[in-house]
Amino acid sequence: MERKSSSPMAPTFMVSAPGKVIVFGEHAAVYDKPAIAAAISLRSYLLVTTLSKSQRTVKLNFRDIGLDHTWKIDTLPWDVFQQPIKKKFYYSLVDSLDPELLEAIKPHAEAVSKDLPEKQRKIHIRSATAFLYLFLSLSSPESPGFIYTLRSTIPIGAGLGSSASVCVCLSAALLLQIRTLAGPHPDQPPEEAETQIERINRWAFVGELCTHGDPSGIDNTVSASGKAVVYQRNGANAPTVTPLTKFPKLPLLLIDTQHARSTATQVDKVRGLRANHEQLTESILNGIGQLTASALKLITSPGFDSRDGISRTLDHLGTLIRVNHGFLVSLGVSHPRLERIRELVDYTDIGWTKLTGAGGGGCAITLFKPDVREETVQELERDLAAEGFRIYETVLGADGVGVLWPAVFRTEGEGSEEIDQEKFENAPGAKGIEELVGVGVHENREGWKFWTRYI
Ligand SMILES: Nc1ncnc2c1ncn2[C@@H]1O[C@H](COP(=O)(O)OP(=O)(O)O)[C@@H](O)[C@H]1O
Ligand SMILES: C[C@@](O)(CCOP(=O)(O)O)CC(=O)O
Fold first, then answer.
1. What's the gap in Å between 357 CA and the centre of ligand 2?
2. How far apart are CA 217 and CA 20, in angstroms?
3. H or E stretch covering 229
4. What does the pLDDT look like over 133-160, one tens digit per residue?
5. 211 burial class (0-12, 13-18, 19+ CB within 10 angstroms)?
6. 79, 219, 308, 399: which one is catalytic?
7. Is the pTM of this model over 0.80?
8. Which ligand has an atom closest to residue 28 CA?
9. What is the whole-number distance in angstroms between the Cα of residue 161 and the centre of ligand 1?
10. In this predicted model, what pLDDT tens digit does every residue of 184-228 receive, in sequence order?
11. Residue 3 — pLDDT band, cuts 50, 70, 90?
């Protein structure tokens, strides 16, 4: 078993980072209006095992996509990455990919999954490229061997930021391995936590550049920071992404239509509407901009994240969610399956619902009203499941990137339990992963620590 060959000098550890939903402002965001995205409690988990000195290999074991590949460390193109004019450091701010470095990685990334159909292989190559770019930038030719095992509870390609959460995990793990991150711990000065989150976020963005080509930066920022962020494009200039550090944890129902959608198609739809009905479309986009600004005012008001603050303002927030959905319907980006979800939820009166992300399929979110009856929720979940929808009970405003070092749980009265690699690899589905290593699932489990933004 691989675990047995791990180095006693470097304990096995785990990092985790959340997915996200857009809470307000999608589509209007394309026209420079603000949008708010929040972290959810669906997460990726990356287990890092250090091998003994004699094993000079690095293995990527991405279970959810069936990628399992091992590279010999000594055969990787270190010389290209280590040229003085190319060499990047953990503190470097990298905001674009270097074509020469990409070219050097290419044959190594393309060595993966040779026997698989082209479509699946492309996904593997993208993940391998992101990993190799980060590994070669942050690690060194003297690096010991490692196994990186990844499992995620975030559905892939559903607009929930799965790729960003994977990149945040990789970035945090590599920065931890070269000992450039301290903490996280409760007494960490806010400026230090801020610097470290930003460092993780910046390198995660580099991974996103490899996976996506032209990422906005919103997904990796919200995944690294947790809570929520405001995102605003600014014409030809770089967009601004500002963390909202006071976003409370709110219970949320996330419902996946399981109907594939294309962001580009939905964005084009709105562009078409705007070309044919400019004033009308502008007024809808302005309406979305206004409601997002109103939500922002609420979220940043003093005491919003206190229990009192939430109960005072939840109704206001919920109303804005409902209105935002109405605007998105007017823009033509809903879908009969999304409308069916809204209809089923509205009949139960358990909360406020909107589509999230590009629309045309994908997911809807329902923010729960206070004091909803558990039986009503269960009945609704049964009805939704019977119609082929996939349901996730999750939390909005979840923690950002976190670490479990070493990968051992100390449970009160029950001693400690090392996370077994085989058990992690084979944990059945999202529920199995969460029961084994889940953040916030077993509240009495000590160990997980999160970098938290206070400023
Ligand atoms: N659980 C995972 N394991 C490995 N790679 C993943 C995982 N989730 C996402 N990815 C990577 O991210 C890509 C999905 O990105 P994308 O289609 O933009 O979806 P999303 O909107 O969920 O980020 C995948 O093709 C894969 O390369
Ligand atoms: C529709 C849009 O506003 C959000 C798209 O969200 P997603 O790809 O579904 O996560 C597009 C954008 O802002 O780039």
1. 5
2. 12
3. strand 228-234
4. 999 999 999 999 999 999 999 999 888 9
5. middle
6. 219
7. yes
8. 2
9. 8
10. 887 888 889 989 999 999 999 999 999 987 788 889 999 999 999
11. very low
